[in-house]
Amino acid sequence: MYVIVVGAGDIGTPLVDLATDSGNEVVVIERDEERAERASRQYDCLVLNDDATSKETLQDAGADRADALISTTDQDATNIMVCLLAQELSVPNIVSVVHNPEHMNVFEQIGVNTMQNPQSLIAEYLYRAVSRPSIVDFMHIGEEAEVFEITVGPDAPIAGKTLREADEEDLIGGQTLIVAVERNGADTPITPRGTTRIEAGDLLTVYSGVGATPEVTDVFGHTEDHD
Amino acid sequence: MYVIVVGAGDIGTPLVDLATDSGNEVVVIERDEERAERASRQYDCLVLNDDATSKETLQDAGADRADALISTTDQDATNIMVCLLAQELSVPNIVSVVHNPEHMNVFEQIGVNTMQNPQSLIAEYLYRAVSRPSIVDFMHIGEEAEVFEITVGPDAPIAGKTLREADEEDLIGGQTLIVAVERNGADTPITPRGTTRIEAGDLLTVYSGVGATPEVTDVFGHTEDHD
Amino acid sequence: MYVIVVGAGDIGTPLVDLATDSGNEVVVIERDEERAERASRQYDCLVLNDDATSKETLQDAGADRADALISTTDQDATNIMVCLLAQELSVPNIVSVVHNPEHMNVFEQIGVNTMQNPQSLIAEYLYRAVSRPSIVDFMHIGEEAEVFEITVGPDAPIAGKTLREADEEDLIGGQTLIVAVERNGADTPITPRGTTRIEAGDLLTVYSGVGATPEVTDVFGHTEDHD
Amino acid sequence: MYVIVVGAGDIGTPLVDLATDSGNEVVVIERDEERAERASRQYDCLVLNDDATSKETLQDAGADRADALISTTDQDATNIMVCLLAQELSVPNIVSVVHNPEHMNVFEQIGVNTMQNPQSLIAEYLYRAVSRPSIVDFMHIGEEAEVFEITVGPDAPIAGKTLREADEEDLIGGQTLIVAVERNGADTPITPRGTTRIEAGDLLTVYSGVGATPEVTDVFGHTEDHD
Amino acid sequence: MYVIVVGAGDIGTPLVDLATDSGNEVVVIERDEERAERASRQYDCLVLNDDATSKETLQDAGADRADALISTTDQDATNIMVCLLAQELSVPNIVSVVHNPEHMNVFEQIGVNTMQNPQSLIAEYLYRAVSRPSIVDFMHIGEEAEVFEITVGPDAPIAGKTLREADEEDLIGGQTLIVAVERNGADTPITPRGTTRIEAGDLLTVYSGVGATPEVTDVFGHTEDHD
Amino acid sequence: MYVIVVGAGDIGTPLVDLATDSGNEVVVIERDEERAERASRQYDCLVLNDDATSKETLQDAGADRADALISTTDQDATNIMVCLLAQELSVPNIVSVVHNPEHMNVFEQIGVNTMQNPQSLIAEYLYRAVSRPSIVDFMHIGEEAEVFEITVGPDAPIAGKTLREADEEDLIGGQTLIVAVERNGADTPITPRGTTRIEAGDLLTVYSGVGATPEVTDVFGHTEDHD
Amino acid sequence: MYVIVVGAGDIGTPLVDLATDSGNEVVVIERDEERAERASRQYDCLVLNDDATSKETLQDAGADRADALISTTDQDATNIMVCLLAQELSVPNIVSVVHNPEHMNVFEQIGVNTMQNPQSLIAEYLYRAVSRPSIVDFMHIGEEAEVFEITVGPDAPIAGKTLREADEEDLIGGQTLIVAVERNGADTPITPRGTTRIEAGDLLTVYSGVGATPEVTDVFGHTEDHD
Amino acid sequence: MYVIVVGAGDIGTPLVDLATDSGNEVVVIERDEERAERASRQYDCLVLNDDATSKETLQDAGADRADALISTTDQDATNIMVCLLAQELSVPNIVSVVHNPEHMNVFEQIGVNTMQNPQSLIAEYLYRAVSRPSIVDFMHIGEEAEVFEITVGPDAPIAGKTLREADEEDLIGGQTLIVAVERNGADTPITPRGTTRIEAGDLLTVYSGVGATPEVTDVFGHTEDHD
């Protein structure tokens, strides 16, 4: 792909890293001279030290043949202007960071894909880390359901049981599915079957139709967080 | 829980929102006067407009009885000083944002939980949004495996087939598991069985032991992104 | 009318002056505290010292019942964000200043009326003031035609002649029409007829299908500016 | 002409554009280094990066042989000092922007032509755009009279009538004159005669001795703005 | 007198001190808040913390009944704008500091009294202090003549002589006049007569038609500065 | 002379002008880069862009062979440090500007010649210019006495009289001496004798033992300023 | 004592702490508002938020009855001005920090006690901490001699010996004297005698006429630092 | 030794001076460009103008083979981050300045040697200089004991006596030991014996088990400071 990244700041920089690593042709537009220079030094990409809210700059960046443009500046107003100009220049795929949740709708109205509330996402992770420290990672599915990674505690009711046994003992509700089992830091998770025995210390990937509520997570041995 | 949040900036603000919403007792420490005032106005929490790298400030914030402290300033050095002082004051659960990946190890050495590379996470989402726009959300499991949400395209090989049929036609590999099916914006995803028929427009939650590679995702009808 | 004016700077201030003078209900949104205070002191209007790129601010300003919103900040990106939010809030008439001519199209695409290039307009006036000092004011009609005000010089060919005489002597081309005659500073211009005699010192309002070219203006006695 | 332009900011830049385009010899004086460089890069003119309130600078700019000097800085005090020095150096034609209306008189006292209140002009245009959106452009003639461009609405009383018919039906008052008719975006306006039929969508140039009052504009079909 | 002083900086402050001490009614206009406050605290005068280039401010300061206005800001352009506005408001006596010698003429043209080059005056004093340290103070009379104060050196030819003797010995040229003699720090200088005996250590006030040249000053015993 | 001038600001610049004009060898020390460059461009002198409160800088400036050092920065503290270092380096003649009158004594204690209160001097000139506009220049002699230049008004009692007549009519007190008479802009003043007739318009240099009080100046025709 | 401390920065703050703790009457002068407030809050002393280079401020601080003044600002020039004013006000004991070693002499010339090079002192401590980590503290006596504290290493030649034995075995040179022995963290050091036995882990206070050279320190068991 | 010095500010600079003078191989890391350049110019060492809180920078500085790292920046948080990274890179000897006494413990916890409160040390010296001016230098030994240098006053009880006589007269308590005598500015102090006679003006190095209390110091003739 030919990708234009607008902004080489906190978000733009790892993005450029990722996009160049994956072998894409990347052009960066960054207004700040120091940041532009650093990006130019660190990554294998063309860096324009210019204002991306100018059509000319976007054309110089190759907007006519770009497959995608990603706007990552920390000003929503700047991002929207960049996206509108990119639309005018017919960039096929346009994505933007949005900082103020109130602005989400505006971006959607004009047909720009958005990365919803990056800071909120981080905030939620941090909050989980203290409110339910046993949950390592998680992903929302619709309104309630969740997939989450959880470590099995030493005294967990499920520890030492096979999935079939756990099922028979009604330890796992109908809405819950153990998707994968990571054990001893092995690279590849085990796809669990009825005969798979869960051990303390396992890192389970679990799907729960009702989310990671205490009722669901208790069986994995973490009772500390009934808040 | 009694939670101390250090920093009321881009990350701290939604975190305070979340923590107060969940009914926790929250104390915010923010050095910048304007931010401190805004936080105080918006959330039901105590806000100290002071320097969190002072033990006295942490004590004023109730570090002796706090269940957790989350450090969210944009300076890793500040975060580490705050975490060390919090350790000295015996705060049981200490979490910190880390901005520079090189500093991850240092935080781990001193025993602080960290939120790994928030900006990298965002960058990866943005990159996926342009490189694989059909993937709505995703979560890494170990090194390779992934759980991801994907919409079923109109011409997808799997569209119109039951899971059993898909299985019989070898459309879905052994390492792939369809975990949940969201349909027509219903609140609760369907837990799929062998007789469940996949339709174009369904939003599937899929587990893949080898990640969301083209080989895995093609069956859901998205061929555009063989980069 | 109920009018929201965004920005109380160089352009916003005389606009508020005009709009309040005409008896409209005016709400001003200005981010800068000092400017907000000044506007509040000087004009009979409500002034919100807040950020207009927030939907909440626009709602506080009464966007739901406003007849019009005029965005006058000196940042095009800010103006476009304000206009998009105003559209979302269904303000019926939205107008914006646009500073960079490249951005005109973007504003038009999203359906916002614009005030085209205010600085260019001023520049043209200034240029006329030195290149054709006898032309007091002017207005472009389409690509070439112009209406302009011009003073009759003491040695002007037309001075002392009636319009009929001027017509007979072919002093005035077919594309030229004398629309009005201001004389001796009288409040009301004379609507000219065939018998109206043009005098040196008259201030004529002239329509010319080919613009205010030297060929057209020479008859009014100004030969100095054949550049 | 040989023209000295003082200031290459928001107003100075389009002025230099205009003046160089028209083939004049232009010298720009701009104190700010960045602006001076940009002007030098973009236009075919000499740019002095210096302080125009120094006689030496004005002499370097060729004040002794300049036909005109236009002062466009955003400080009235600076403009007046520049104008006084230009007078001392006998520049024949001196024009200045004036920002504070209170200062108009001072400029006139010392004999400098001024561009009256550029921001007020813009403010009036913006206000018209919301209070009488059908009026596209306008020009004041004396105290009350106006020339204005107006689009004919679909239900306008005058639509479908010849001018003679309109006159006979008393649709157009004695103080009103239709000067030109632009139709279908043609380059040249039609000079209207008695037999010219006005159509909905036409863009008329109208002279009205009493200004663009509702009484005058109603016949063109715009009743929405009787405020 | 009723005096308006514009600027309460390095020059304005001692001026206000002097003017209030002499019992005048003084109004100070100072834009900088801190300086305005300090002046208000220290002196018995009204202080307006406002912009003096506004006619309204000058009217608030009582320009209509002021006997004089003295403009002391460090910007010549500001001073000239203030003076022009003061003229428009008919202040009878207007004086201004001028910093750039090139601007002297401009001030004179518009009829403002000026304090010529304050810094040059100081520079000359400093230069004298090193080039002719025996000269304590001096004043130019026309092009060449000077009045100066000089101390009589211990070995001065004139020391111990009466003025008559000095005259007879041709020590004092025809163009030189000893105007006053200060001795032993007495408050009142002695008006010298022919019998007055000059002593080493006396501080003489001398008039010289040719200035304080070495030829003139040598008789007072200072030979060190024949440069 | 070899002179070191510290500071190339408002006072230092005309001082360097004067000192280089008089053929001295001048070295300038100025910390600010821009000022240093300008001084270097304009004057025939060596300019060190360095901190003068460093002994090394003063040595580089040739303090060991300098005849004099003049410190003109706008910080008294800086000036005193420079003077003390210059004393340590045995510069024979050291002079400094002093801004705060309270600091005069301190400079004198350490044996530095000072230029007393430059701003006060200017302030006094300005004040005289409005309080006694007829007095053109003046110099204090001791506590009370003054030498001053005054123009003879058209209705002055002394106008048209010889000095002898004026003396006989007791117009001039015993403490007053007319030192010189400038007439018609001639280069050389007239040394007045008993037969010299004073004319309206003459510019007199007058010595008065009691200062330029109204009693003294009235005879020269200026009654306006009995304040 | 009545002590005036000038400056409440890095050095001034612990000084005020010390001086108030010891029961002195302390007045602090600090120009920075924030620092002044903090000092006022933390210590039992009067704090003047003013400029100490003003005689008036020093008088307000009670300079007439002060026993001592300590100037601790980070500007040598400011410190010297403060000290000179304090001398003029006859403060009996005046001490100042000096930052630039070149300025030491100047302070001494005017008779001010100085704290020599605080940063150099710290630098030397830091350097010792890495070059001779066994030396805990030290003090120079004249040019070469030193008193130092050193811990006795486990394999030190002197460990386990009485001083007499050490003397007899020539372990300790004639220029070395063991002054005190701290053992087991006891409050009071032991005054050593011939029969006192040195043990590994003792912290000795040693005087050496030739300084803490390796030859001298080896006997205490630290050979690592022969650099 | 191979030493890395972080920070080339007030403390870092004399440290680099010392460390290079002693023949060590020194690498300096300084973020500020100006400071980095100055250090590079003045000292024989490698200077990296970079951020020391980056592991890469420390590696570039040779952290893998460094014998020691000394962190001297004025931010405790920065110092601790640098120290933690240096630990991770296994630098054998790590020392840091600590500014806030509250942070001492944190540094100790992670095992970093610290230079305790440099500003407090200076403050104590300054305080001694005014409270006991006769004490020239001092060093604490444990809680109470001190070694100090003191000058013998002209009327001191001990002046003119041998140590034996002083002992016999009980002038010197059992806890006090005169360690060395500096006389007449000689390079080498005298090691005192019983027959050594103390003279007024001698500079004594004294050990006192109870500190430099008035009871101890009175015998050396300084009674002024019984506070």
UniProtKB/TrEMBL annotation, chains A, B, C, D, E, F, G, H:
The protein's matches in InterPro entries, at most eight in alphabetical order, are given as:
K_uptake_TrkA (IPR006036), NAD(P)-bd_dom_sf (IPR036291), RCK_C (IPR006037), RCK_C_sf (IPR036721), RCK_N (IPR003148), Trk_Ktr_HKT_K-transport (IPR050721)
PROSITE patterns, per this entry? Answer: RCK_C, RCK_N
Q: Which residues form a coiled coil?
A: none
| Residue intervals of the RCK C-terminal domain | 133-222
- GO CC terms of this entry: plasma membrane
Limits of the RCK N-terminal domain: 1-121
Which terms in the Gene Ontology molecular function aspect does this entry carry? Answer: potassium ion transmembrane transporter activity
Q: Does the keyword Transmembrane helix apply?
A: no
Judging by the UniProt lineage, the source's domain of life is Archaea
Q: Does the keyword Transport apply?
A: yes
**Keywords, ordered alphabetically:** Ion transport, NAD, Potassium, Potassium transport, Transport
| Biological role stated in the UniProt entry | Part of a potassium transport system.
- Name under which the protein is recorded: Trk potassium uptake system protein
Q: Which organism is it from?
A: Halorubrum californiense DSM 19288
Lineage of origin: Archaea, Methanobacteriati, Methanobacteriota, Stenosarchaea group, Halobacteria
